Amino acid sequence: MPTPLDDTLPSLNPYSPSSNNYSQDLPLHHDAQHPRAQELDDLTTSGKRHKRNISKSKVNTQEKQPEDSKHLLGEEEDSEEEDDDPSMSTRSRKSKSQGPKGSSSTGGENGHTNGSMNGNVEYRRKNASLESPSVTANLMARESFSLDEHVPRTPTINNHGFMELPRQDKRNFGLLVLLYFLQGVPMGLAAGSVPFLLKGAHLSYSALGVFSLASYPYSLKLLWSPIVDAVWSPKLGRRKSWIMPIQMLSGFGMIWLGSQVKEMMVTAGKEDGSGIWSFTWWWFFLVFMCATQDIAVDGWALTLLTPGNISYASTAQTVGLTAGQFMSYTVFLAFNSPDFANKWFRKTPLDEGVMTLGGYLTFWGWAYIVVTLGLAALKKEEKTKNEDGIWDVYKIMWGVLKLKNIQTIVIIHLIAKIGFQANDGVTNLKLIDKGFSQEDLALTVLIDFPFEIGLGYYAGKWSTTYTPMRLWCWGFVGRLLAAVIAQITVVIFPANGVDTWYLLVVIAEHIFSTFTNTVMFVAISAFHARIADPVIGGTYMTLLATVSNLGGTFPRFFVLKLVDFFTVATCIPPSSDYSLPKTLKGPVITSSFSCAMSAEKDRCIQGGGVCDISRDGYYVMNIVCVIVGVITFWGFIKPAALKLQALPLRAWRIAEGSN
């Protein structure tokens, strides 16, 4: 009989109830590059087998078969022994079975079935079995199916450079970068530029802590990710069913917000930020749209790239998100600065920059719509059938959460970023507070950007050379050191204003902080992609990403509040012989009061007073955070992370029958 490799096998006659020919059950082989190869390995080596009732006449017929046929069929006695001894190890079972057993209905040549073929087989179900005709038909219908090869192991990660990737992987990599870039645009505004604009409007750190709630959807998307994973239209595709409408809503939302944002900013800055809540909710909605899109894109990334190149999914995420955030953070801040625009682009000075927040939102709102239409017309997704209900996916997610290893990594994610919170959330705001200009900050991030992109690419390669969690631990230590360096940078702020040497110090500090942050992000993303179950890829990846984001989001609100709480500052009124300058913008200060809040500090300075800070809450909280980070890292995080890295992939899968 000819095979896909053009060699021959001994003639095997399939058994038919209508004839007296011998029975023959063919072993199932699967493609090592298929995303579900690990699940097939688990089922064939350690999955629970179902007993079959074989008639006495068939058993007698089997006794007459040659030894080779017995190896292909598998002896009933071995199967019974395995059922009777559930504690038998995987290696013992594998030694008794030369290959997985499968059956199919007759009627197709070379063992192919004539029934319907389900292209999206659910291997994780409680009663999943290789004896299922639909499973058999699905596997044998693949071009990679062969009777000559042994059951392959789970595919290993390739150590390929980008130029060595297959052409299809390169195209899909570019698509992922584009989709992640679109997510980075509003996220760069919500997490970067808008807080700086609000700080310029003299809002307190507590008010900025309220606005930080706008980024919470990224940390709460686990709650609705099963809906995204379980509900879709077969006509559009599993992922495009969500990506396309979400991007359209985001586009129209950004266009509307662009027309209203100027008035909303003014309202948010009134009475020391009392109107910040309504402003925050609108951004919460926009980030909610991006978070929902991220669920679908994360799941799509697991199937767009071949399994051996799956680590490039984290690289695409890093490059895309970084570029989008760079556009909304660095480029926007620079062109939004009146001083930058008046210096480089205008002869007649104006009070606003070349680029306004409203115009920027409107432009990218239309860009969202154009990209969505192009995605609908140019990119086709494999059509699948709905197999799980929403409740089924929630049960699967609950089953994942019950895994001991998942519980350990959840704890790691929730406490790992505490050590960096004051540095990540307050350092740049403190520099602005001390007099670092908006255009200088934009220049700093501009120089930092190529380093971030380049390091993101190499960090992705390093994650295939070194184990991701070990690389993550190296980045953790570096990030703690970066927090200490950042505090020193703020302490040595020049009294006479920013000069060239200090600007270089800030740039160097930013590059080092970015380097350690990028290494940690890429390493943990590669680890998530490696351990995620492709069958429930969207939910699995979202669960891991959600707890990682939550660890960096929930402490920030409290850290910003505590910075104001621990700050002690007193406004000292001018002396009696003080000559009032003509540039005085407010009423003269005649008595002392607390100027710990930004609005009170501004009133003090505009009234001719001096805000004397006797205790800066930023220094207190940064030291506390670093100490907590050191204790938790060497006491728990590092040994637990390296232990998780050493686990096999089957340790991250839901055991059959657990749901």
Description:
This protein is mainly α and 659 residues long. It contains 24 helices and three strands. It has helices at residues 37-46, 56-63, 67-73, 76-84, 90-96, 133-140, 167-200, 205-211, 217-220, 225-230, 240-268, 276-304, 312-336, 338-344, 357-378, 390-401, 404-416, 421-434, 438-465, 468-491, 500-531, 537-566, 598-606, 617-645; strands spanning 568-572, 593-594, 610-615. It has a three-stranded antiparallel sheet with strand order 2-1-3. It is globular, with a radius of gyration of 30 Å. Residues 1-132 have low confidence and may be disordered.
Separation of termini?
43 Å
pLDDT < 50 runs, ≥5 residues: 1-132
Strand content: under 5%
Basic shape? globular
Widest β-sheet, arrangement of strands? 2-1-3
What Rg, in angstroms, do the CA atoms define? 30 Å
**DSSP summary: helix tally:** 24
Largest sheet: 3 strands, antiparallel
- Helix fraction by DSSP (H/I, runs of at least 4): 55-70%
User: Which structural class best describes the helix and strand composition?
Assistant: mainly alpha
Number of extended strands? 3
Q: H/E order of the elements? A: HHHHHHHHHHHHHHHHHHHHHHEEHEH
